[in-house]
Write a structure and sequence with these properties.
Rhopdopsin 7-helix transmembrane proteins, single chain, two-stranded antiparallel sheet, Beta-Lactamase
Length: 507
């Protein structure tokens, strides 16, 4: 029977045991699409990951065809035997790359000795095993039916080399990220290791158990049916880890954990502060209050003067001015380690964890909020940044209001600022004196944040008399983003002079 006839025969009947491999293949296609489209991070880890997914897709194709062949009771010769060899050959670089990814997560800057040991093992030993699999039958001598649904290997005289390769690499793949949880590492790195451990441990345990059982002749389960879904799940977790700089902390979702208690208290403190809507005060008062809320040193600079909290030290105040003035976005030190190593080194030198630009395009209102090393310990997950973002939006309004008040008192420059800055000043005044978010303590955290965000949008539209483009510039977001948020909040602003369904207050 030629290969074309075999393919036609395999397509006639779907083997139910092939469903895990088929589902895993579809899931891996989704993971590959996500990795390919994620252009924000292209580095050593992401490139390795794409190669890993491609190898895994090839492995799934072999699993599907082999299981289909077994359903038709085809002899493990010809195409089936060749596919069995391909299965083992692909598995070697696939496991080796997982080990390399585990090393990259466990070590921030591996020493030369560590690199030599790990890479020597991975490339040297795996290359030897792969060469033996391709060129000889000393590792896998052939294949035989396994139960009623798949095939298994007939071990050759050197099959123990493949067994040791699997056991050692899977052990390293699981234990190295445990070492990566050590104290002193960034919270981002620790969260990456936690997600890796949670999904890698079941996968490694299952494969090692299969290797041991087959070594002792216990034909109970085989990898072609049991491994595909666990491998797809692990690849999805790894893709999330290596392509994002803000990832969830699993300990937050564990009831009663220390992290959950600390985060809940932190969110509650910030939300309660946002609801009280205190007066603006001086810039020094703003800095001191932010330092108290965020639990880290804080400095505030506007290109001419700066003020800082009492615990900020001298280094933060010495950060180069040109670095601030060319920055019009958020810079988080641990997020730019690979993309901008020089900026990252400079931030480490001055003990700066993050820089937030507040109205960077405004001549009068441009400020840069400089946060010290404790910031990344407290704020590193998507939810953290979402809650803190609301606080910083409010702080931006306070800083601008304070600056414009000083300018109007001293030199009248306030009258020369663009309309959007004047509107922003009115906006911060509206928030301070006119409206306070009314949030029920019974609501979930997500709903509390959403209500506060909706209230800020209502205030902006009212101060801009319903002009959505002006309100969007004031809030620092795109017009279509504002339109989406208005729809979500049920806010309408159809023409100037009207906001959220009622006449706007004239100023």
């Amino acid at each position: 029977m030629d290969n074309a006839s075999i393919v036609d025969e395999l397509a006639i009947k779907l083997n139910p045991y092939a469903l895990p491999a088929i589902l895993a293949f579809i899931g891996k296609l989704g993971v590959l699409y996500y990795a390919w489209r994620s252009t924000t991070r292209k580095n050593y880890q992401t490139r390795l990951f794409i190669v890993e997914v491609l190898l895994s897709l090839a492995l799934s194709m072999v699993e599907i065809i082999v299981l289909q062949g077994r359903a038709h009771d085809m002899a493990p010769v010809g195409l089936m035997a060749w596919l069995g060899d391909v299965y083992f050959i692909i598995s070697v670089p696939l496991i080796a790359i997982l080990t390399l990814l585990a090393v990259s997560l466990a070590f921030d800057r591996p020493t030369a000795g560590t690199k030599l040991l790990v890479y020597g093992w991975v490339y040297g030993y795996s290359g030897l095993v792969m060469g033996l699999l391709v060129a000889t039958s000393w590792v896998v001598a052939g294949f035989a039916p396994f139960s009623t649904y798949t095939y298994t290997h007939v071990p050759g005289p050197l099959y123990w080399m493949y067994e040791w390769f699997l056991v050692i690499n899977l052990t390293l793949m699981t234990l190295l990220p445990v070492y990566g949880l050590r104290e002193g590492r960034s919270e981002l790195a620790r969260s990456q290791c936690k997600l890796w451990i949670v999904t890698a441990t079941p996968l490694a345990t299952l494969i090692v158990a299969i290797v041991i059982m087959l070594h002792f002749g216990l034909t109970i389960i085989n990898s072609t049916v049991t491994v595909p879904l666990l491998l797809a799940l692990h690849l999805a977790a790894v893709g999330y880890v290596v392509h994002n700089t803000r990832i969830i902390d699993l300990d937050f979702y564990r009831p009663g954990s220390r992290v959950r208690r600390q985060k809940t208290a932190f969110y509650r403190r910030l939300l309660e502060f946002l609801q009280t809507c205190p007066p603006v005060g001086s810039k020094q008062e703003i800095v001191d209050r932010l330092s108290e809320l965020l639990g880290c040193p804080v400095a505030l600079a506007n290109g001419r003067t700066s003020c800082r909290s009492g615990d900020s030290g001298e280094l933060m105040a010495q950060i180069p001015l040109d670095m601030l003035e060319t920055n019009n976005r958020i810079i988080i030190a641990q997020e730019i380690r690979n993309a901008h190593p020089q900026v990252h080194a400079l931030m480490e030198r001055y003990e700066v964890a993050a820089i937030f630009a507040l109205y960077p395009y405004s001549r009068a209102g441009a400020h840069w909020l400089i946060l010290g090393s404790g910031f990344s310990t407290q704020v590193h997950t998507p939810m953290d940044f979402r809650v803190v973002g609301l606080l910083l939006e409010r702080a931006a309004g306070w800083c601008l209001d304070n600056t414009l008040a000083d300018l109007s008192r001293n030199s009248g420059v306030y009258r020369k600022t663009p309309n959007v800055e004047g509107a922003t000043a009115n906006f911060s005044g509206c928030i301070r004196s006119g409206s306070k978010p009314t949030v029920s303590a019974a609501l979930s955290l997500d709903k509390q944040i959403a209500e506060i965000e909706c209230q800020i949008i209502r205030d902006a539209l009212e101060c801009c008399e319903g002009r959505q483009a002006e309100a969007a510039r004031m809030l620092g977001i795109k017009a279509n983003t504002l339109h989406y948020k208005m729809r979500r909040c049920g806010i309408t602003a159809r023409r100037p002079g009207y906001s959220h369904g009622r006449p706007a207050t004239r100023h």
